[in-house]
């Protein structure tokens, strides 16, 4: 059986590019070389290039998403998408590859755009009875009615860039006078903001995958941040404990896993996903879902897969096969 040619996309145009590079490198390292010929592809603002260690950067031909190596044109059987943020998590890469009829491992373009937009995603899920925080929406240029905002969401509250990840553009606000600075911080990342009420409780993360043809929730991870919330430092600089399995009851574990699977099904997701919840008054409240979650050694999905007894080569192989079978 001939080997499949796989492009592993990493980088992106957002503040998350460096984190995505770590995820992409993890995938490249763990794909079975007896099954796959792997080409790392960096998608960056200054160009798209194959960054194969044995060669100088090779430009990608965007007309058909190919590279030319030693005079030979190489096309890809499948794309493993590890881009965090735009253009890999917001639907743009998915739409582009769809037009070229190249399978890719994440969800389809519309679902990617929907889940990347926190406000729209929450609005859809609420219609299905998924519990969330109380929220307030602001666009850049809108009049800021501080009294109305605080009246609706209370204090403390979270101010978040609507379309960003890895906690970029997120602030926890305790006092009215700090709201303006938090809004300015979020507007650095996006021109839309979501302000959410603070939910007191245990924060957990649940990976959901289609594994061997069945939608399956992975073991639950409890998030214990040393900082005020699960911010960039907590996620990537060791300022948190990520405890898998979470220190919650069997009933709570079952409840949040089923809710995460519901989110996966409602939003028609594919590939590797990770949903965040907080147990507030004993019930899981949805925060957000990541459709190209972190896959670096420090990331949550690899931790959960290990506890579930799924090796990274097996996990990544399953995702590629699912993508090819959907073609």
UniProtKB/TrEMBL annotation:
Q: In which pathway does it act?
A: Cell wall biogenesis; peptidoglycan biosynthesis
Q: Does the keyword Cell wall biogenesis/degradation apply?
A: yes
Q: Subcellular location, in the record's words? A: Cytoplasm
Catalytic residues per the record? 16, 166, 299
Q: Name one GO biological process term.
A: cell wall organization
Instruction: Identify the domain of life.
Output: Bacteria
Residues that bind Mg(2+) 2: 288, 290
- Binding of Mg(2+) 1, residues: 288
Q: Keywords in UniProt for this one?
A: ATP-binding, Cell shape, Cell wall biogenesis/degradation, Cytoplasm, Ligase, Magnesium, Manganese, Metal-binding, Nucleotide-binding, Peptidoglycan synthesis
Q: Does the keyword Transport apply?
A: no
Catalytic activity reads: 2 D-alanine + ATP = D-alanyl-D-alanine + ADP + phosphate + H(+)
Cited InterPro entries:
ATP-grasp, ATP_grasp_subdomain_1, D-Ala_lig_Van_CS, D_ala_D_ala, Dala_Dala_lig_C, Dala_Dala_lig_N, PreATP-grasp_dom_sf
Which EC numbers does the record give? 6.3.2.4
Enumerate the Pfam families for this protein. Dala_Dala_lig_C, Dala_Dala_lig_N
Return the GO cellular component terms, semicolon-separated.
cytoplasm
Q: Which cofactor does it need?
A: Mn(2+); Mg(2+)
* Alphabetical list of HAMAP family matching this protein: Dala_Dala_lig
Q: Which PANTHER family match?
A: D-ALANINE--D-ALANINE LIGASE, D-ALANINE--D-ALANINE LIGASE B
Q: Which family does it belong to?
A: Belongs to the D-alanine--D-alanine ligase family.
Q: What is this protein called?
A: D-alanine--D-alanine ligase
